[in-house]
Q: What sequence folds into this?
């Protein structure tokens, strides 16, 4: 799972681009999937890295702010693990800790009380995540209009998401 700071930063970008009815409920939805011990259940798939977006949409309506935040969390996980991340090892969590402060400051993230103890901070150079690419990921995912993707064809959500680019193309 991307760190909480990444999820909340995506949420802040998303809020700037969309009219969210109930901000507090939306933000609770953003962190809810990772608060659950049973990640398969809370991510509607076998792992948090493989959320079943269609299954979530079959069981929930994203017109509710909490569910919209929850779905944005699942979309973020799906894209992070299946499109953005190029390699994985336990250093990824250290990279989150190294980027948390910068992400929080850049995106005006407020860490909710229920997760204050689990968001960690450390100094140093990241070993897996490129800071600029993470910012590009946050911006790209935060600008997705998930409402229109869902309205067009619920069954093709993952197909539509697969067309999003996160890194600038090299010239």
A:
């Amino acid at each position: 799972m991307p760190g909480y700071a990444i999820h909340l930063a995506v949420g802040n970008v998303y809020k700037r681009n969309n009219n969210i009815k109930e901000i507090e409920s939306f933000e609770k939805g953003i962190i809810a999937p990772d608060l659950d011990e049973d990640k398969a259940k809370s991510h509607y798939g076998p792992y948090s890295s493989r959320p079943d977006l269609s299954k979530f949409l079959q069981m929930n309506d994203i017109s509710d702010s909490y569910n919209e935040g929850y779905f944005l969390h699942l979309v973020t996980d799906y894209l992070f693990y299946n499109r953005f991340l190029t390699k994985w090892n336990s250093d990824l969590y250290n990279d989150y800790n190294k980027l948390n402060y910068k992400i929080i400051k850049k995106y005006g993230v407020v860490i909710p009380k229920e997760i204050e103890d689990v968001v960690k901070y450390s100094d140093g150079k990241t070993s897996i995540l490129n800071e600029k690419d993470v910012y590009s990921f946050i911006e790209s995912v935060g600008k997705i209009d998930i409402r229109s993707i869902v309205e067009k064809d619920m069954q093709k959500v993952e197909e539509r998401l697969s067309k999003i680019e996160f890194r600038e193309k090299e010239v």
User: Anything to note?
Assistant: The two ends are 31 Å apart (CA to CA).
